[in-house]
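queue> pop job 88
queue> type: inverse folding (structure -> sequence)
queue> payload:
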């Protein structure tokens, strides 16, 4: 994950920019999914997003004599959770039980399209030649709409979100892509898209866990691997309460700690569960609403061998909309 790379000048610069974009893409956004065999759309989407981001978000690493930091989202403000228990597994089990007792209407009626809306962001850094006028660094999120139709047709549309600075305040840059602008679209006919997860998803945690193992995990998979599968599931399926309860019970079996509560990037109150510190240079987080819905996932870099971002820094996030009811 180190960005301590030689910085050549002149004709080699363009090749370096392309190489760094690919390295950052592979390391920061698809490092886990490539191992898990997630369908090709996730890799294609990330690659396309990086091409857009490499134009829209740049940070000069050569123009200044001291390191120039890329813009990363503000860290979540986490406070102690008032739950009566500090045990992550116990709280997740309680939330699963709460979901199973829910009388909420079916969010995924049979025969109806399933639409998943989310905001996503991933770190992409580039370099500029000495004296080059590069855009100011800021965060440029994308809003994705993923639609799964009953006949197997798949649609994915990405539009530009509202750019913001490292303090979370909107950025007014006339050169930025206007919010709401369509960035790319993928439409696949029935039979073209490969789905990892069937309809319906098992309501039994043991069966769901086995399904996730069959989809590419193993008993030796890391917390990061498992949370990548959770992301893949939530990008394919609109879960019914009992299905999401099973998912929480699977997550309860992971090595996670309860970090506390926070307000997520879409303004929703959530519990924060995270991988234990010290295992790697990354902390993986999953945010769950007080009513038991998975709201978001985040990857936070806590290492010390990069020159383009401070430590800790948010490397990527997925914030799922319409999941706080």
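queue> result:
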């Amino acid at each position: 994950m180190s960005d301590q790379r030689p910085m050549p000048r002149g004709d080699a610069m363009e090749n370096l920019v392309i190489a760094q974009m690919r390295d950052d893409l592979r390391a920061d956004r698809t490092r886990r999914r490539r191992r898990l065999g997630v369908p090709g759309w996730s890799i294609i989407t990330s690659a396309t997003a990086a091409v857009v981001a490499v134009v829209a978000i740049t940070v000069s690493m050569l123009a200044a004599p001291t390191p120039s930091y890329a813009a990363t989202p503000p860290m979540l403000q986490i406070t102690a959770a008032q739950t009566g228990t500090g045990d992550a597994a116990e709280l997740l089990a309680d939330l699963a039980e709460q979901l199973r007792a829910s009388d909420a209407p079916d969010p995924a009626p049979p025969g109806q399209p399933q639409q998943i809306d989310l905001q996503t962001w991933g770190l992409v850094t580039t370099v500029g030649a000495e004296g080059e006028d590069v855009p100011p660094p800021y965060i440029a999120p994308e809003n994705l709409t993923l639609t799964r139709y009953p006949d197997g047709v798949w649609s994915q549309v990405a539009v530009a979100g509202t750019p913001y600075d490292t303090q979370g305040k909107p950025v007014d840059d006339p050169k930025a892509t206007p919010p709401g602008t369509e960035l790319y679209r993928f439409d696949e006919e029935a039979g073209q898209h490969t789905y990892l997860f069937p309809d319906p998803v098992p309501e039994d945690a043991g069966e769901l866990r086995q399904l996730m193992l069959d989809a590419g995990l193993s008993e030796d998979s890391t917390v990061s691997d498992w949370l990548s599968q959770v992301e893949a599931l939530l990008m394919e399926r609109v879960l019914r309460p009992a299905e999401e309860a099973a998912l929480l019970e699977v997550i309860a079996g992971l090595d996670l700690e309860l970090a506390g509560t926070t307000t997520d990037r879409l303004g929703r109150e959530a519990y924060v569960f995270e991988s234990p510190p010290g295992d790697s240079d990354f902390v993986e987080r999953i945010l769950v609403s007080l009513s038991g819905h998975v709201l978001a996932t985040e990857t936070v870099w806590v290492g010390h061998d990069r020159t383009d971002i401070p430590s800790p820094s948010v490397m990527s996030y997925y914030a799922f909309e319409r999941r706080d009811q």
